[in-house]
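Record format v2
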Amino acid sequence: MTFFGLHFQDIVFYTLATILLIAGLRVITTRNPVYAALYLVLAFFTAAGIWLLLEAEFLAIALVLVYVGAVMVLFLFVVMMLDINLDKLREGFWKALPIALPVGGLMAVEMVMIVGARNFGADVVPAPAAHPADYSNTAELGRVLYTDYLLPFELASVVLLVAIVAAIALTLRDRKDSKSMDPAKQVLVKKADRLRIVKMEAEVEKNDVVDTSAQADDKGAK
Amino acid sequence: MENIRYDLITALPEIILLGMAMLVLITDLFLKQSNRIAIYGLSQLGLLLAAYFTVTTHVPSVGYAFTGAFVDDAMSDVLKLMIYVGTSLIFVYTRQYIQLRNMFRGEFYALVLFSVVGMMIMVSGQSMLTLYVGLELLSLSLYALVALDRDNHFATEAAMKYFVLGALASGMLLYGMSMIYGMTGSLNISDINHVLMNGSGIHAVLVLGLVFIVAGLAFKLGAVPFQMWVPDVYEGSPTAVTMLISSVPKLAAFAFVIRLLAQSLQTMAIDWQQMLLIMAVLSIVLGNVTAIAQTNLKRMLAYSTISHVGFVLLGLMSASGNGYISALFYIASYVVMTLAGFGIILLLSRKGFEAQNLSDLKGLNQRSPWVAFLMLIVMFSMAGIPPTLGFYAKFAVLQAALQAGFLWVVVFAVLMAVIGAFYYLRVIKLMYFDEPEDNSPITAPFDMRVILSMNALALLAIGIMPQGLMTICFYAISRSLS
Amino acid sequence: MLENYFPILLFILVGLAVGVGPLILSKLVSPSRPDSAKNSPYECGFEAFEDARMKFDVRYYLVAILFILFDLEIAFLFPWAVVLQEIGLFGFLAMMVFLGVLVIGFIYEWMKGALEWD
């Protein structure tokens, strides 16, 4: 199936790629950070579409599930709730532009020259043969991930553990203003926890000072 | 899959330390405040056990585990032992400091141990994937450690900078690795080398990948022009964490550079030599010149680190066996010096007071002649004045660079080292010829005093007899790099 | 195999058309005469007191971050479940070690009280 010399897959690819590029550009140019986050969601979606075209289905689904479903929601949450001063964020944009633009442009030109069609074109890197319909990318991944790549796989769990520890250590704190009560603690309380009995000399009123000293003298005399 | 028994034995030190980190994390939850010291003991025990198994399972030959993702060679064992010793010293030096600052928690020790596991993986990684995961494990733990003192705004800001720039560096590294993978079709260090030896791969693409890898590595090492995070992070972090960041991870970064550049991209030495040369020269210049203007001790040491990294790169740049050996020698000496230097800063800090300005060192000789003498040795060593260790380290690196034919670079580096000596000597002047500004007594636990003294005196002892350390470095490199 | 995804592509396109179509139609067809009173935020007839954005309790993020971490863990379970027959006991144990490490994190989280909200 071809349209104007393009395969249907190519059309889908170019559509997705165009949306991806525009969305990516808008992420960094749009004024409102909430819109920026939403453009990033769009970028993730279209990237997932491109990965699907590459027959990397599992990664495409994981991208949507993990990044769009969880990471970006958190992102959006933070951006929407935080009191961000937008003007301050854009300060220095024009001042940095004369340096940033040529450097960025130079890098882009270099990368286009090297990663472009000359080194990675369809004639240099032939397309891999299409897989049959019952081919499972997920199974292929699973076959090597838990055997050949055992070490990085297990280390990934350690990285996740460190992330848990870091997240809790950095954010969790005892709230001083919390008024909630723990019934278990209330029930377990003993007299000794609340009541302190202090042994002390019997108090004598101040205006009796003369008298007591006299009594003391008396005692001493006896 | 069949050799799982061999795999597990090879990675036994990592597994033990990982187990100990998790044990510390969980044990801490059940301990009362007064018994917290047990987690300190557990952490030290973990390092000791890991060291024991690293030594007993050591074989002089090279062994691969986990389908080639993990390597056990002389270099990895030597570097791991250095990492254990360095971390153990850090635990000793920082104990009192973090107790006084409400950071003596299970998280601190667990995160340090996790970062050590990350370093060990970086040292032993034989696939780009393993290396990268190890690096992330190390970095993630360090970001969290920097911010662990939550009510300290400087620390939070430092953590933020460290995290953003570190993530950027990781991204660059990954992009470079993906280019290399695309050209060679393998993530394995030795496989990549074999493929490149056969001359396959488009050179321009490989160089693009190399540029990104070198930039990522330079970020992590803190070499100019990717050094901007170093002074801010050193200054902002709690001194205990600064000590960690500035010392042992450099050993892991050294191994990382060796694995990536010297082992997998060996055939592209001509390309990365030039990059390292430029970064080395710039680092030595900027580190030494900017350090003169600093009034903050931690900032000064940060710039000093940048210049030391420059010297290490000078050794690596020679791309010869001698160059690698001298670079390893230099980085090991640097770690010993830095630990002693930051140990003394921790010694001078007390509750509610951070010794971090140069003026805090004023008249140290009158307050405590012995501590002043130790600092004198450290400063002499950092400046590279004979007969200290720092002198011999610089000498070895410059000799290797000279052999590789970089005469002018060597002359230039010597000149810069002389300029750099100025700010180290200024510290000595402050200690010996100025009047003290505060006369509060220096208090420290007995074990810290003893070990810190031994650490600083080691600079002198190894400086006079460097053969031992040199032999170890020679053994590590010659057995691991063919 | 990509042909199998064609219905999904069609579905997405139809979904987009249903979502975007009315927006464009209303933009074109409906009358639009905004004025300043119409555009101002409505808060029970009062002037708006303050910006809707404010400092938020950091624990909301903590819950969200912990969710993401376990979400990532789940992502690793899918390929494992698909090939468990092939990778056998070895693969099973590999995943158990992976989960074991995360269980340590879970115990830590639980004991620390990060899952409590008071």
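Chain A has eleven helices and two strands.
The longest strand of chain A covers residues 2-3.
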